[in-house]
Specification:
mainly alpha, two-stranded antiparallel sheet, about 10% strand, single chain
Length: about 90
């Protein structure tokens, strides 16, 4: 049986079994696109918007190179969601 790991918001990896790798990549890509769209909407006056701009740029490069299944993408997703959450608390 093949196992694939998905990094979630906590540091604990979640084991996903019996999942085709193509579906995983498609879902990861959709998640990246959604996060990029939300990070773009942060207020320009926010400290976290400035921090998130680098993460957003890196995620866009990952989408352009079609490398959405990389471990770097998982780290950037976690960091992007963290910045998004901190920006929401600032409001």
């Amino acid at each position: 049986m093949d196992y694939y790991y998905l990094l979630c918001r906590t540091a604990t990896p979640v084991v996903i079994s019996n999942m085709r790798i193509g579906n995983f990549v498609d879902e990861q890509r959709e998640l990246i696109e959604m996060l990029v769209a939300r990070l773009e909407r942060l207020s320009a006056d926010s400290y976290w918007a400035h921090q998130a701009s680098g993460v957003r740029g890196s995620l866009l490069r990952i989408l352009e190179t079609d490398n959405s299944d990389s471990s770097q993408a998982a780290i950037l997703l976690e960091r992007g969601f963290d910045y998004l959450e901190k920006a929401a608390r600032e409001i």
